[in-house]
Amino acid sequence: MKKSIKINFTDFSKAVGKGGIDVLFGKWDSLAGNAVDVLSALGLAANAKEIAWLLIYRSLLQAMKNLIDEKTELDPNHINIKALHQEINQALATSSLTLNHNFFKHPDKDPIIAAIKPTFVSWLKQCQVSEADAIAISDRLPIYFAAALHHEWGNQAKDYAVLKERLDTPFTQANQRIQAWFKYETWLQKQVEEPMFLEAFSLKRVYVPLRAYYKRKVEGQNPEELDPRLASRDKFERVVIELDKELKTWLNQAKKDDAIRLISGSPGSGKSSFAKMFAANLAETDKIPVLLIPLHHFNPADDLIDAVGKFVHTDGILHNPLAADCRESRLLIIFDGLDELAMQGKIAEKIAQDFVREVQRTVDRLNQRELCLQVLIAGRELAMQANETDFRKEGQILHVLPYFIPENKRKNYVDENQLLEQDQRQNWWQNYGTVSGYGYTGLPNELDQGNLTEITAQPLLNYLVALSLRRGKLTFSKDTNLNAIYNDLLKAIYERGWAGHQHRAIQGIEERDFIRILEEIALAAWHGNGRTTTVRDIENHCDNSNLKNLLKRFQEGFQDDAKASITRLMTAFYFRQSGHNDSGDKTFEFTHKSFGEYLTARRIVQEVRYIHCKLEARDDDPYEDWDERRALHRWALVCGSTAMDEYLFQFVLDEMRLHYQKKPEDVAKWQDTLCDLISFMLKHGMPMERLEPRPNFQEENRQARNAEEALLAVLNSCARLTEKLSEIKWHSEDAFGNWISRLHGQRIDKDVFCLSCLSFLDLRGCVLVFKDFYWANFEGANFEGANLEEANLKRANLFEANLFEANLFEANFEGANLERANLKRANLEGANLEEANLKGANLEEANLEEANFEGANLKRATLFEANLEWANLKRANLFEANLFDANFEGANLEGAHLKGANLKRANLKRANLKRANLFEANFEGANFEGATLEWANLFEANLKGTILEGKVPISSPETEQTL
Fold first, then answer.
1. Which residues cross the membrane (predicted)?
2. Could you say which of 429, 472, 479, 516 has the lowest number of CB atoms within 10 Å?
C-alpha cells in the first residue's frame, strides 16, 4: 500500500547551511543535474525523503525564478541568489510537509507556501522591488509553485522514480486523462495569476465581478396589442443579473435542451477576463471539467469534435474530451473571441454564424440522451448579432454591462436587486490602489467627466487610464478620447527604461520610428486575423513600406539573428508569443486586440497624410512622379487585405479627431484629396495589377472592394469632423448607386458597415431607385433632385439631410430620423413615414398624397402648401407644426396631436379628425367641409372664417363650447 512521506526541513536546512550555499547556490539552476549527484554534493543520501525534499526545493526555486523573470525592469546586479537560498532555508528550518494525494491535488494551498511568502517578500525588497510590488509578486507564488511542481515532475521523471513506488499522487495514477486534467486545471488557475502587462500584480487581484442583462419579453402584452409606436421597440425588457452567479445556476441546472450561453460585450468590457476567471474558479473547485479555447487559435473549418481534438493536442491535453472513446461525462467548453474567427475570403459575421450553428449541432447530438456538454461563447456585439435569431430562449444571450450606468439610463433596465446602483469603478480603483501601492480609495475625481466617464466604465480602458494617470504627462479633460490615452502609453513604452536604461532594441531609435515599426506590426496582424502575426509577415510588411533599413536598426541592438531581435522587441511591448503557425513561423499576438486596432488606425491615418502630401507635392513640382494610381496602389497595400469594421473605424475617427483638434485645415484638405481619389477610382478602377505577386482575379476583386470601402470610411471620418459635404465627381447619375451596391453586397444582418459611412455625401441628382439603405447613416447628406423612388430607408438617419425636390415616391422611411431635414417640394407620394421622426423638418410644398405618417413625429415641422391629400396621419404628432395652406383633403388625422398647430387656410375637406387634439390650433379660414370632428378637442381653437358646410358631428362638450 502506498504511503505518505513526511519531510522535516530541519535536517536539510542544516545540511545546506554547512557551506553548500557558497559552493552550489550562486545561480538559479544550482540544483540542476542528476538528483543523486546533487544530493551527494550536499552530503545527503538519495532516499525517498531526500528526493522528495529536492522535488519541493527545485519547484520553489523555479516558481520564484519564473516570477522574477516576468519583472523585466529588475537589474541583474541586485539579484542575490545565495541570499535567497539562505532566507529560504531559515524560513523552512522549523517547518515540515507531508507528501500525499491531498498535497499533490492542491500544492498551492499547503502551509509551507504561507511560511515562505514573507521571506520571499523580504528578499524581493532587497532586490530594489517596492513593497507593493513585492507583495503582489509573492501573492502569485502559490499557483506558480503548483505549476512548477507539475513541470518538474514531468521533465525530470527519472529523478523521482523512487517516489512513484511510495506515493499515491495524481502524477503516479495510471489514468493519463486524470493527470492531463490535473495539469490543465493548474494552468487555468495560473492564467489569472499572470501579471497584467508589465505589472507585478495579476488580473485576479484587481478583477471586479461583472454584471450583465438579458432580454425578457414584456409579460402580459401581446406585441400586436401594444401601441404601434412602441411594439417594435418595447416588447422586450432588459433584466440585470450577476454574470458569474447566473452562469453557475445555468451549469447546476444542467438542462440538455438549454446547454449553450452567449456572452456579448464591447471591446474592453471584460469578456475575456471573465472567461479566464470563470474557468479558473471552476478548475479550483473541481466541480466540472472546463476547457478554455481562445478562438483566434482555433480552426473553424474542421468538424467541431476534430477541431477540439487538434486544439487540446497542441495545448498539452493528450485526449479529446469530445471523442467517443474518451468522452467526459460532464464538460464545459468556453469559446472566447467569436469575432476573432477568420478565414480568407469569407465574411467574418458569416464565419461566426456558421461556427455557432456547428456548435449547436454538436451539442444537440452529444446531449441526446443526457447532458454531457455545455458551451459558453463570448464575443463582440457584431459577431453576436448575427446569431440572435437562433437563441430566442430567455437568458441565452447575456450582454455585459459596464462598471457604471448613469442614473438617468438605469430606468432602461429591470434591476430588482439594485445592482446598477453600485459604481463598480470605485471597487476597481480601490483594488488597484491596494495592489499598486498608489493608495487610491476610489475613482479620482478628475476622471469622472465627459468622455472619461464612458472610458473608465470599461475594465481594460480603466486600467489604461490608470497607467496614463500614473505617468502624469497627459492632461485629462472631458474631451480626452481613448486614442489620446493610447498615444500617451506609446510614449511611456518608448521612454520606459529597463533598469534605468532603454531596452537595447530601441537604443538610437527615434520615438517616431519606434512607433512606426509598431504600426507596421499592427498592420501585419490586421492583415492576418486581427490579433496575431509572424516574424516573416512583419519583415514583408516592412519591405513593402520601405522600412527595411529601420528594421535593421532595430536588429543591430542584438548580437543574434534578426528574427530573435524581433522576438525580443515583440515580447517587450504588449505582445506575447503564442506558438507557431502551420509553416513553423513563430506567432505573436497582441495582449489585447484593441491595442492592435489603435495602432492600425494610426497607420491608416498616417497613410492619408502621406498620400495627401505626395499628391500636393506633385501639383507643385512637375518632376514629381506621384499620381493617383500610385496613391491607390499604396492604399490597396494598406487596406486591401482585410475589411474595415466599426471597431477599427472608431479608432480611425478618434485618431482623425486628434489631428482635427490641432490642425482642422489639414483634415479638410485630406477630405478633398480622398474625394479626388474616389472619383479617380470610380472612373479608372483600383490599380490591383500592381500588386506583387499578383493574386488571382477573385482575390484582386476582394482586396479592391476592401480598399474602396476603407476609402469611403476614412473620408467619412473627415466629413464627420468638418461637417462639410464630400463633393465626389460621380461621372454618371448611377455611379454612386453602382458603387454602393458593390460595397454593400448581400445583407446578412441589419448592420452593413459601409452604410454607416454615408453622412455628408453630396449625392445631388443620383439615381438610387429601389436601393437598400436600411439603417444607413445619411446625416447631413445632400440628395437634392435625387431619385430614391421605392428605396428602402427604414430606420435610416437623415438628420438635417437635404432632400429638396427629391423623388421619394413610395419610398420606405419607417422609423427613419428626418429631424430638420429639408423635404421642400419633395415627392413623397405614397411614401411610408410610419413612426418617422420629422421634428422640425421642412415639408413646404411637398407632395404627401397618400403618404403614411401614422405615429410620425412632425413637431414644429413646416408643411406650408404641402399636399396631404388622403394621407394617413393617425396618431401623428403635429405639435406647433406649420400647416398653412396645406391640403388635407380626405386625410386620416384620427388621434393626431395638433396642439398649437397653424392650419390657417388649410383644406381639411372630408378629413377624419376623430379624437384629434386641436387645442389652441389656428384654423382661420380652414375648410372643414364634410370633415369628421367627433370627440375632437377644439378648446380655444381659432375657427374664424372656417367653412363647416355639410355634416359635422359634434359630440364633445369642449367642441360645442368653442363653436
1. none
2. 472
Structural domains of the chain ordered from first start: 5-174 (no CATH), 207-419 (3.40.50.300), 428-480 (no CATH), 504-591 (1.10.10), 595-709 (no CATH), 730-887 (2.160.20.80), 893-963 (2.160.20.80)
Give the total residue count for the chain.
963
Q: What secondary structure does DSSP assign to 193-250, as a single string? A: TSBSTT-SSBHHHH----EEEEEEEPTT--GGGS-HHHHHHHSEEEEEEEHHHHHHHH
Q: What is the amino acid identity at position 788?
A: L
321, HSE (Cβ side, Cα atoms, 13 Å):
24
Buried b (16+ CB within 10 A) or exposed e, 274-297: bbbbbbbbbbbeeebbbbbbbbbb
Query: From residue 635, how far is each of 545, 631, 688 by CA, in Å?
Result: 11, 6, 10
pTM comes to 0.81
User: Mean pLDDT by 10-residue block, N- to C-terminus, for the chain (963 residues)?
Assistant: 75 66 64 84 84 91 91 75 85 85 86 92 93 95 94 86 76 67 91 86 96 87 39 71 97 94 92 96 89 85 85 76 88 91 54 88 94 94 81 92 94 95 96 94 92 89 87 88 88 57 55 83 83 76 72 52 43 52 66 85 97 92 87 96 94 96 97 98 96 94 97 98 97 96 86 95 98 97 98 97 97 96 95 94 91 88 85 81 81 81 81 80 80 79 66 40 38
* Residue among 707, 673, 670 nearest 687 (CA): 707
Kindly state the DSSP code that residue 6 receives in the 8-state scheme: E
Q: Which amino acid is at 309?
A: G
Can you read off the three cell numbers belonging to residue 687? 490599380
